[in-house]
Amino acid sequence: MRLETARLVIRTFEPQDADPWLAMAVIEAERIFRRLGHWSRVLPADARGLAERQAMRLWAAGDHRVAWLNHVSDRLLGRFTTASGEEQAVILRCLYELRADATRLFPHLPDRRCSWWADAVRVLRWSKSPVVGPVLASQTNRLARKARNHGRAAVVLTALRGHACYETERALLRAASAANPALRHAAVGSLGWWPPYDPDRVVRALRVARTDPDTEIRRAAVSALARLGERAALSEVAAGLHSEEPAIRIETAARIAEEELTWLWPDLETAASASDPDTALAASEALERLRERLLGFAE
User: Fold this and answer.
1) What does the DSSP 8-state code read for residue 106?
2) I need a labelling partner for 50 at 20 to 30 A (CA). Which of 59, 68, 81, 194 fits?
3) Nearest C-alpha neighbor of 151 from the set 162, 140, 138
4) Radius of gyration from C-alpha coordinates of the chain
5) Contact, 226 vs 233, CB < 8 A?
6) CA 283, 66, 9, 15: dihedral to nearest 10 degrees?
7) Per-residue pLDDT of the chain (299 residues; tens, 9 = 90+)
8) 116, 85 contact by CB (below 8 A)
9) Distance of CA 297 to CAs 32, 79, 89, 100, 268, Å?
10) Spatial CA neighbour of 19 closest among 103, 97, 79
11) How many CB atoms lie within 10 A of CB 32?
């Protein structure tokens, strides 16, 4: 059903369309196309013929689909101000998937009274403006002062991972030692996405977080150290791909993609050739997710 729906979507969209729901469907169709080669290895023999036919249909529309995705961000940005609140939320989620720069929608910080505030902050991760990082860092510091705003502060801390600047790093390091575990988790998870301005201080903070009583914070610290190339952290994560438990191998593959641990790309490629079909499929999916995160959908 997903493949047939994707095929119909590709046949019906027009170049001038700026419907965010349609855009999400086209993104899903592109995802399906990129994964069909992996899925075909585990499909029953009687289903492979259908999968091959669907793959050919998606391949035939590939250039049109990618060209449309290359331009849809600008059309969605133009539609945003006249859209309903519900549609604005979907536009923001779509722009996040496309890694679009939505700075022009928010000459000032997004209005916290809007239902889609968290989506707006999230998409600002991809802003190319050198001003956004320091502004978001300042907002994080203000929000973190009051307990009732800690949930919002955690949202902003997560968006900071897209902004390499000294102000951002200082805000993350400050929050990494906060009393609230939600703030510590968001801050630690946003470190290691770029070469640190103060490497000694960042690595020291991450090693402290590695001993945190909260399991998720310890896990985030290991992932951050792995992004920075620390061998012990990389070995710890990679060990999961060789676990005797299939569930751990599958979870590790997903973690590598989610945390963008590109140092472990070769390990994923090895796992994608595993004799266990579930492990191979999970590793293949992780590789595709890494490609999407690094290259986007419209390359």
Assistant:
1) -
2) 68
3) 140
4) 21
5) yes
6) 160
7) 454 544 445 444 555 567 899 999 888 888 888 887 776 676 667 766 777 777 777 777 778 888 888 889 999 999 999 999 999 999 999 999 999 999 999 988 899 999 999 999 999 999 999 999 999 999 999 999 999 999 999 999 999 999 999 999 999 999 999 999 999 999 999 999 999 999 999 999 999 999 999 999 999 999 999 999 999 999 999 999 999 999 999 999 999 999 999 999 999 999 998 888 899 999 999 999 999 888 877 55
8) yes
9) 12, 21, 21, 11, 21
10) 79
11) 18
Select from 226, 194, 225, 190 the least CA-distant residue to 207: 225
Structure tokens at 55: 């793959």
Closest CA to 114 of 129, 97, 92: 92
What token pair was written down for 126?
A: 């991809």
Q: How far apart are CA 240 and CA 35, in angstroms?
A: 23
Measure the CA angle with vertex 264, ends 262 and 269; round to 5°.
Answer: 105
Both structure tokens of 9: 């979507």
Rounded (10°) CA dihedral 158, 160, 163, 168: -150
How many angstroms separate the CA atoms of 189 and 99, rounded? 19
What DSSP element (H or E) covers 266?
A: helix 265-271
- How long is the chain? 299
User: How many angstroms from the chain centroid is the CA of residue 131?
Assistant: 22
